[in-house]
């Protein structure tokens, strides 16, 4: 093929691959690792996370959409689909907010987390799903951001699309 890993523009020379508009990532025991950086480390006590997910099953374990920080659970923030099929955002060693609703299997859901001044809010498809005072955001800033796993465990086994992380709280309208 004519794949060039060093390419920085699309010159149109890569042909024969259909563009069906589906750019989501399929996770099935793999992950994306984003190295620690100044941008990632600019997240302090405020964070907003947006994404679209399409879960294909709830199999009794926490499936990590993203994890940043200590793999042992002490100093991190996580976004997961829990064993009951609910969305869960947590910090540190166990302070979480959990959605009221169960995610719908095999359907896309827009998920949104806002954390400001120790309070986290969850939204699914624009609907408020939970709010809780979970404390201050603290994480190991030397650790990478994992998308689709918690370090080397708890792999998310479904689709993730349009994952965005902001270092400020934003509103749904923004």
Number of helices: 1
- What is the 3D shape? globular
Can you tell me the residue ranges where pLDDT is under 50 for at least 5 consecutive residues?
none
Q: Walk across the major sheet and give the strand order.
A: 1-12-3-8-9-10
Helix content range of the residues, please? under 10%
Largest sheet: 6 strands, antiparallel
Radius of gyration: 17 Å
Spatial separation of the terminal alpha carbons: 41 Å
| Arithmetic mean pLDDT | 82
Compute the number of strand runs.
12
Oligomer: single chain
SSE pattern? EEHEEEEEEEEEE
Question: Strand pairing plus helix content: what structural class?
Answer: mainly beta
In percent terms, what proportion of residues is strand? 35-45%
Q: What does this molecule look like?
A:
This protein has 174 residues and is mainly β. The protein is 2% helix and 41% strand. The protein is built from one helix and twelve strands. The strands form two sheets. It has a six-stranded antiparallel β-sheet with strand order 1-12-3-8-9-10, with no helix packed on it. Strands 2-11-4-5-6-7 form a six-stranded antiparallel β-sheet, with no helix packed on it. The radius of gyration is 17 Å and the shape is globular. The model has no long low-confidence stretch (mean pLDDT 82).
List keywords for this structure.
single chain, 174 residues, six-stranded antiparallel sheet, 12 strands, 41% strand
Strand-helix topology:
Layout: E1 25-26, E2 32-34, H1 38-41, E3 47-54, E4 63-69, E5 76-81, E6 86-91, E7 95-102, E8 109-116, E9 119-124, E10 127-133, E11 145-147, E12 159-166
Antiparallel strand pairs: 1-12, 2-11, 3-8, 3-12, 4-5, 4-11, 5-6, 6-7, 8-9, 9-10
